[in-house]
Amino acid sequence: MEKVRVRFAPSPTGPLHLGGVRTALYDYLFAKNQGGEFVLRIEDTDTARYVEGAEEYIEEALEWCGIIPDESPKKGGKFAPYRQSERRDIYNRYTEQILKTDYAYIAFDTAEELDVIRAEYEAKGDVFSYDNKTRNRLRNSLSLSEEEVQKLLDEKTPYVVRFKMPIDRTLNLVDIIRGNSSVNTNTLDDKVLVKNDGMPTYHFANIIDDHEMEISHVIRGEEWLPSLGLHTLLYEAMAWEAPQFAHLSLILKPDVSTLINKDNIDSITKSFTDEFVTKNSQFSFDESAAIIKKFFSEVKSPRFKSMLGENDKDDEITASVKQFLKKGLSGKLSKRDGDKFGFPVFPLDFKDPATGNISKGYRENGYLPEAFINMSALLGWSPADDKEILSLDEMAKEFDLHKVHKAGARFSKEKSEWFNHQYIQLKSDEELLQILKNSDVDLTIDDEKLLKIIHLMKERATFPKDIYENGKFFFEAPVSYDEKASKKAWNDETSAVLGEFATTLESTEFTSETLKQAIHDFAENKGLGMGKVMMPLRLALVGELKGPDVPDILEIIGKQESIARINNAINNFK
Ligand code: GLU
User: Fold this and answer.
1) pLDDT the model gives residue 95
2) Could you tell me which residues are annotated as the binding site?
3) Nearest residue by C-alpha to atom 3 in ligand 1
4) Is the CB of 206 under 6 A from ligand 1?
């Protein structure tokens, strides 16, 4: 059996988004599952769309995810170079080869000429397509005489190479995930294979490289499904065996009802309104915002979807808002969704070199790479027993392309946070200490104490920084006391009781065990319920009635600081 070789072939046109990471991940998982190889190839033939730094970003993102290519531009390999811009000689050879077949021809039409023709078609309400119905009326080696063609070539007239789409053939297309389908060649156009600068377009370079690099399986996003007919014919034209194909469905926008709450409704309304009025400048911001907010306040109601339906009684602005929201809340997950709802769509932060805009990354938002790839992998695939927490190796063992879902997978912010929480629990205290030390949290506390804090706080942490943020009281004395908690925990006698307790603390050994006993004995001696001591004590130490067990807090804060905080509280409630 031939060796399984799978490639991930991104174009360096910007940062890799979640959908791209998932494609790379499925490529990798399938290759590893089959004992095969995973190749990273950079498809940079489209210089107009090239973005500085995008290739480095892609490599770094894959590395962070642990999706390590066996061959890549950085690593090299048997089929190097892995950057298409460096493979020109190879493409030139195959351009000559395809021109000798009946599957390609050269065309001299300039972009301007084609624009004029396109406009003529549009004026008649038609759409122009360079295809088997129009090609004989255009300027190419099929319509011109041999002499005319030779003359143009001698004059160094620029030309492109086009694919000669066969007439009226029904192609059978096979896809591992989607099964069989068919397409008639009369619906396909004569795509440009080689541009007038001699560089191949995506379609031609892509199949040449897949052939040259001995790729056995092409696993890629569903946006390439419409190209499958052309690609199948290109393999036929070159008399090469085609790889097997699998097209992955889209990652869909999250369910908006899980994202909007009373804390963020105003900011989300604002970003939707900004976009709405940019597109519909005839409406005022305030009026639009009011309507959008009205819809968003009903977002959790089961009627929400039907409320967006058309209604004859709607005025112009309401009808436009409805249309805008319906479109904006469904379909493919986009970068803008992340911006609006406050979740990352990219693995790492990316600064657009042209605009300076920063797109937020999972890494910088405190996600662990294990959680991020686990979440991404389950967007469209479920392992046999519906297990949810799987390492990269476990996923590779279980991965099955036939079990990848045909339908789009809905992204969920909640679920991605859930995964991160789970993976934080799986980390040892020492590992979390390293993560916190490497983050931008400013910690001036010794490791031993920090480890204890991590141990107590990780259970409630979704992100590493939560350990610090939910445990701020370990690092800083409270500057105020929560009003409701104060009413509940402090009464006229409390100051005297806590004052006395503080004195007993002077001679108490500061370990959680002894402290627990000391609080217990003190309360018993005074004939007080435990809560009468524990609650105000917690308030004095934390500033509110939350946090881990009080003896644990006391131990970590230490004798001097604990007594000082108790006295501060007594002074405060005087
Ligand atoms: N360069 C293409 C992209 O960026 C690759 C498509 C394919 O995998 O064939 O999506």
Assistant:
1) 98
2) 262
3) 10
4) yes
